[in-house]
Amino acid sequence: MAFTLLGGLPALAQQTVAPLANSRPGTAETLEEISVSATGVPTPVSQTGSSVTVLTAETLEQQQRRTVPDALQQVPGLNVVQTGGPGGQSSVFIRGANSNHTKVLIDGIDASDPSNPNGSFDFAHLLTDDLSRIEVLRGPQSGLYGADAIGGVVSFTTKRGEGPMRITTRVEGGSYGTFNQSGRISGSQDGFDYSVSVAHFRAAATPVTPLDLVPPRGPRRPNYYDNETISAKLGYQVTDEFRINSITRFSNATLRFNTDDYSQFPAVLFGTVRNEQGNQQIYTRNEAEWTPIAGFHNVFAINYSNLFNRNASDIYNPLALIPNTNTGERLRYEYRGDYLLSPGNLILFGAQRDEERLFNSDPNPFGTGDLKARNGNTAGYVEAQLTPFDRAALVANLRHDENDAFGPATTFRVAPSYVLPFSETRIKGSIGTGFKTPTLYQLYVNIPSFGQIANPNLKPEESFGYDAGFEQPLGDRVLVGATYFHNDYKNLIQTLFLPGFQYSYENIGKAESYGAEAFASVKFTDTLSGRIDYTNTVTKDEVSNLELLRRPRHKGSATALWSPLPGLTLSGTLVVIGPFVDGNRDFSIPRLKNPGFTTVNFAVNYDINESVSVFGRVDNLFDRRYENPTGFLGQGLAVYGGVRVSTF
């Protein structure tokens, strides 16, 4: 069906992540795709055995993806689950791993929230306006990245200023009360480069409650979401050998949403409660780069993040509970060096010290009161990137962590790649281990009024995984490939219920996932290209022998890019999610079958001249009704449009 769609509807467009689709319309040569996350330094994808997908700023703009959850929908081997529309809690499952098994980095800063009970990252509040690339690295990656990288890594890189000063502004409006604005000023001069971005995203009326869950004669209040994000990336080349960089990112988001009113029974029939969540995030990184001799590069960096959440329930009730707050804080000192031994042979090494803190406050009667906890971790790692012989590449890393709470953890990853002569078939693979530390909440937070007992003896969750695959060019315009993967997870932390209406956390879970990813990328003409991806994922809880929740066995996507005229670009994306097991909205039914869904998005961009562009898009073109997760309605047909103005 996807091939027919690509061939019969040339107006559909293709993502630039696809091999053979990276070149601009009208050029005959394809640029080599580069990944930074796969090795830690810029490396051609063809020289690593890791499975990585790269979404560039050009791709995001062509498809007009304004939020990260929307952008990630098309990535193979990955499932995005969002509770309703923009701002709703957004989780990512990579190759069947849990949502808290994904390492998330923003310009090298660990973006996780230490105050989160299970350590999962919420992608909901990340906008794409200031991003230059998104990289999704699949498979265990703790050998380089340490804790949390059990399932994979999602790395975000923001834009850097270059060339003469340029100012870009964008205004966009459309369905669901959407009104977005963004602006950016960037450039470089006399060794100083700068990029400052401001973005405002608002979706004032997004319906997220399915009609069958709306109480009789009750209001169907839509979600309200507002996000303001400011980011700045500054750099100064002091000398030929020495450079300093500073990165700051701040976001302020507000989400108003409904939950079921459990004070009445049954909740679905009698009412809902209007809640508000305030979210403020600060990420900073200050670093110095020193290259004392050619080929020897050093980075010294200090990272800091502060994530504040304010949760207010029943906001229209003057007798409602007092809002509670959660704050997670992280500080990292980091050194990283890389030395080029010879062309194609490089050694990378580094050390890190992390401090994380939790500050939670619930001042209500019978609430949790004030909670505080802290933990630290010291780590060192080394990686070799080698070209043992012609057409072969090998990346291998080893890392050792010493955690203040549970002690040592040693992890590794090996990823070879080889291109066969004559057929040009690239054979690739990887094998590695991963771990995830217990959260501060699980280790240290006791809540007697709720029966929660902390467990300071928890051990890290662990994974072992491998994959193997190939990529085969068919002429100059077609590339196909497939990868098989397998992952085992043990010591998974789960809730253990105790006598006396108490519970704690224990390392009692085991699971496995395996499957395959396949793709076909085609450059039909110099102006029309397309790509198809398919992922098959099988998961099993090895304790209960049941399929894991919210992991669809089948996922497919088709993307295309067409530039029929100079300045005119059309793009389209088809995403197919197969059936999956889920619970209902309040999990009173713990297992049911969600039928899955199919969506089609279409976007058009037209450059009127060098300074002015107009654009528009249609999301969910055929207005398919679906729930992902169950009990939360996905967005229906939506139309957006706007204008972009730039100066040179």
From TrEMBL:
Pfam family, one: TonB_dep_Rec_b-barrel
Protein topology in the membrane: Multi-pass membrane protein
CDD domains associated with the record: ligand_gated_channel
The family this protein is said to belong to: Belongs to the TonB-dependent receptor family.
Subcellular location: Cell outer membrane
This protein's name: TonB-dependent receptor
Cited SUPFAM superfamilies: Porins (SSF56935)
All residue ranges annotated as the TonB-dependent receptor plug domain in the record: 45-153
InterPro entries: Beta-barrel_TonB, Beta-barrel_TonB_sf, Plug_dom, Plug_dom_sf, TonB-dep_rcpt-like
Boundaries of every TonB-dependent receptor-like beta-barrel domain copy: 176-621
Coiled coil: none
